[in-house]
Design brief:
heterodimer; A: about 250 residues; alpha/beta; Rossmann fold; six-stranded mixed sheet; B: two-stranded antiparallel sheet; about 70% helix
Chain lengths: ~250, ~400
């Protein structure tokens, strides 16, 4: 397993509030990692930094075997490097069909002229069908994404991530709004993905994290509080203190 | 399941059919080729309306599909008019000068003709030499190129600066208003080189067609306008029916998602902004020879706002909506402000439509926004759906 993403000594503050404080984090390929922490621990800001939405005040973010810095790249460039992101609130193109959503996400050239002359090849068609099968939306391809249930939108966004074919997936609260059955399916899907990808899952739901059965990083006040197996971090005095309140 | 331009845009064959029927009907009723039921001036109004529809189509692409509320696209329309206007004026004036000098005892040299032409055109602003921007005004081909290149280049530079800095929403709208205001103020100056507030005139006289009456010229321009609208409609339908259209609508609805999928959002916006500016340039170049005159007032900020109002009333995000909106509103505007509408006598007050048309238009805009947010095209959709079920 080689290191795919290495975040070291990163800090960022908004109007004096330190959202991320000297955070260091590394993930290899393949690996599944759960990131937990109370509200305001900096989980989403951490993802914003990796995906280029927020620029850190200090620290480095290195990517890939060559250790390129991601800090000078735009969001789109970082996405093309192979980092896919699922937002906390499901963000899909509600006005467009499920099929269109997946087609737009497919890993193909991203330029405007390539898009104008893009033709749907049989391989594209097969790939969209396979992904739709995987996310349980095969019967909904022609429906507009806006009419899907919350859980289905979550899945569609995960499907779009798959279509993008990234190396690192940053998944923010994938199980929110899902039934128990859907959660189990999602957990299985993420675990399967992690066999060939690096997957970072931010989640509040401990039951879901337990099901993921992976290494857990606990964030608190913008830095790593504890790291290890779920049993290990839950036994950590500081984690208990943070979670149960002072 | 294969998607084609037609399955995704069922409006295309219908639109082309209606446009063709309209062109045939107007030809049959025209003075030049038919019964003469339609006056020359009304034929010109119809042709000009088609040009406005074309500008509205462009506006719908940039606003309705890409979500960029540009309130400056009429500047590109005006620029297109100015670019072709320079050629029309130069060539036409030169013909007149040549005719005048033909009877002089010593045949004039080319330099003398050029000088006399310049004097004729620019004496109104107290100049007698060709300004630099008229450098290619003697070439039709180059002037036609400028019709698309100048609006395109302005849009490219403006858009690059604005989109790169991630200016969006109402701030971008204000910037585009500033752009069209600045351009119009610049053109108002006498020493700019485009004859200040006199503008360019006599554009209805087409050089090379001196023996042809306005009755025929008006119908030719009507055909050309219809052809341009038809071609651009098909092109726009093709553009928005493919993956490019999905991405552009994605930018409108959720820019962040598109960005995180790896698409260079700024480049897409720039392509749409520039392309639509070029379409507006073409529309303007067809419009002003029918109007006969262009001056800086044409690109005052209000003109671009009207363009947005047409698209809003017609229904944005639907190509035919933009066309319906522009046609209905601009024809009504011609009717009410052209002195054709009889004044309404209320006994205690006489409603003169020239004054009250803007109020009516504003009221219509408010009503459409409140009760038919999808515009007039929303009604079309409703009726079509009703028919199917």
């Amino acid at each position: 397993m080689s290191t795919l993403l290495e975040v070291s000594g990163v800090s960022v503050s908004f109007d004096g509030f330190k959202a991320i404080n000297n955070l260091s984090f590394a993930i290899g390929l393949p690996e599944l990692r759960a990131v937990i922490g109370p509200n305001g621990a900096g989980k989403t800001t951490f993802m914003d930094i990796v995906t280029g939405k927020t620029r850190p005040d200090e620290g480095t973010v290195r990517w890939g075997e060559m250790g390129h810095s991601l800090l000078s790249m735009s969001e789109a460039q970082i996405a093309r490097e192979g980092i896919g992101r699922k937002f906390q609130r499901p963000t899909v193109f509600e006005d467009q069909s499920v099929w269109d959503n997946l087609r737009v996400a497919l890993s193909k050239p991203r330029g405007p002229f390539a898009s104008m002359f893009d033709r749907v090849t049989p391989e594209d068609e097969a790939r969209i069908s396979a992904i739709a099968q995987e996310i349980g939306l095969s019967d909904h391809l022609r429906r507009k994404a806006g009419v899907l249930s919350h859980g289905q939108k979550q899945w569609l966004e995960i499907g779009m991530l798959l279509a993008q074919d990234p190396r690192l997936l940053l998944v923010d609260e994938p199980a929110a709004g899902m039934t128990t059955e859907e959660r189990n399916h999602t957990a299985d899907l993420l675990k399967r993905l992690a066999l060939s990808h690096a997957v970072v899952v931010v989640e509040h739901d401990m039951e879901f994290v337990r099901r993921l059965d992976c290494r857990v990083t606990v964030l608190h006040e913008g830095s790593v509080l504890s790291e290890g197996s779920l049993e290990h971090v839950m036994a950590d005095e500081r984690v208990i203190e943070v979670y149960l309140g002072r | 399941m294969r998607d084609t331009i037609f399955t995704r845009n069922r409006s295309v064959p219908v639109f082309i059919a209606i446009l063709t029927l309209l062109a045939i009907a107007v030809t049959i009723l025209s003075e030049a080729y038919g019964t003469g039921a339609l006056s020359v001036s009304f034929t010109k109004v119809l042709g000009m309306t088609l040009c406005l529809c074309l500008a509205a189509l462009a506006m719908d692409l940039v606003w309705g599909y890409c979500g960029i509320l540009s309130l400056g696209h009429f500047a590109f329309f005006g620029l297109g008019g100015y670019m072709i206007g320079m050629w029309l004026m130069t060539a036409r004036t030169e013909v007149v000068i040549r005719a005048n000098l033909a009877s002089s005892p010593i045949p004039p040299t080319e330099a003398e003709i050029s000088q006399a032409t310049a004097l004729q055109i620019f004496s109104v602003v107290g100049a007698e030499d060709w300004p630099w921007m008229w450098a290619v005004s003697d070439s039709l081909v180059l002037s036609l190129l400028l019709v698309v290149l100048v609006p395109g280049l302005l849009a490219l530079v403006f858009g690059w600066l604005a989109f790169r800095s991630r200016v969006t929403g109402v701030y971008l709208s204000i910037l585009t208003q500033a752009m069209t205001l600045a351009l119009s103020l610049y053109l108002f100056q006498n020493d700019t080189g485009l004859r200040g507030n006199n503008g360019l005139s006599g554009l209805q006289n087409i050089p090379g067609a001196e023996g042809v009456g306005q009755d025929r010229i008006s119908i030719w321009f009507f055909w050309a306008s219809a052809l341009a609208l038809g071609l651009c409609y098909v092109g726009a339908a093709w553009l928005v029916s493919g993956k490019f259209g999905n991405i552009v609508r994605g930018i409108r609805d959720d820019e962040l998602r598109v960005r995180f999928l790896g698409y260079p959002v700024e480049v897409y916006k720039l392509v749409v902004f520039t392309l639509t500016a070029m379409i507006c340039g073409v529309a303007g170049a067809l419009y002003y020879p029918q109007a006969g005159i262009i001056n800086p007032d044409e690109i005052a900020p209000i003109a671009s706002i009207y363009l947005a109002v047409w698209v809003a009333i017609g229904g944005r995000g639907r190509l035919y909506g933009a066309v319906i909106g522009a046609a209905v509103v601009s024809l009504l505007s011609t009717y009410f402000t052209g002195g054709r509408a009889p004044d309404l006598n209320l006994g205690f007050y006489r409603v003169e439509w020239i004054d009250w048309w803007p109020v009516l238009l504003g009221l219509g805009f408010v009503l459409v926004t409140l009760f038919a947010p999808k515009g007039l095209a929303g009604l079309v959709d409703y009726l079509v759906r009703k028919e199917r079920t």
